[in-house]
């Protein structure tokens, strides 16, 4: 199976889907998961805010929302990303847009593999996993 990328954002682009898809598949396989169906959709802040309100009842802006439909070790999910928020975070932290986007891509995948970031310990583990897998990106 392949990973789907759907860019609905009018002005910001997503590049290198083949390379990124291969990297994400290697990441999930390294964690002993199998790819079933995974789709990433890139949106604006306003569009992701609507999803946040409609499905999670959260009246906040966010960079990512992950819907997990996994069946045991088979990854099945939908990940929605605000490219506006990714750009803002990259600028705020003096990072390259693509580097920040790659971090968010793997962050969502890690959520599907049962990693969380609610507590400080969970956040530290999640960040360490992100850093490790980002270091493997060709």
SSE layout and pairings?
Blueprint: E1 3-7, H1 17-30, E2 34-43, H2 45-56, E3 64-68, E4 74-82, H3 83-92, H4 97-112, H5 120-135
Parallel strand pairs: 1-2, 2-4
Antiparallel strand pairs: 3-4
What does this structure look like?
With 138 residues, this protein is α/β, with parallel strands linked by helices. It contains five helices and four strands. The protein has helices at residues 17-30, 45-56, 83-92, 97-112, 120-135; strands spanning 3-7, 34-43, 64-68, 74-82. The protein has a four-stranded mixed beta sheet with strand order 1-2-4-3. The longest helix has 16 residues, at 97-112.
List keywords for this structure.
5 helices; Collagenase (Catalytic Domain); 4-stranded mixed β-sheet
Concise account of the structure shown:
The chain is α/β, with parallel strands linked by helices.
Low-confidence stretches: none
Distance between the termini: 21 Å
Task: State the CATH topology.
Answer: Collagenase (Catalytic Domain)
Number of helices: 5
Largest sheet: 4 strands, mixed
Order of helices and strands: EHEHEEHHH
């Amino acid at each position: 199976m392949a990973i789907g990328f759907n860019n609905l954002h009018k002005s910001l682009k997503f590049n290198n889907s083949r390379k990124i898809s291969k990297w994400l598949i290697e990441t999930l396989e390294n964690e002993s998961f199998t790819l079933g169906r995974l789709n990433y959709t890139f949106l604006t802040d306003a569009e992701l805010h609507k999803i946040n309100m409609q499905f999670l009842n959260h009246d906040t802006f966010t960079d990512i929302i992950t819907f997990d439909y996994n069946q045991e070790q088979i990854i099945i999910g939908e990940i929605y990303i605000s490219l506006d928020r990714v750009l803002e975070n990259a600028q705020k932290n003096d990072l390259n847009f693509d580097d920040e986007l790659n971090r968010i891509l793997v962050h969502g995948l890690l959520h599907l593999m049962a990693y969380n970031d609610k507590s400080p310990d969970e956040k530290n583990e999640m960040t360490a996993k992100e850093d490790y897998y980002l270091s493997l990106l060709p």
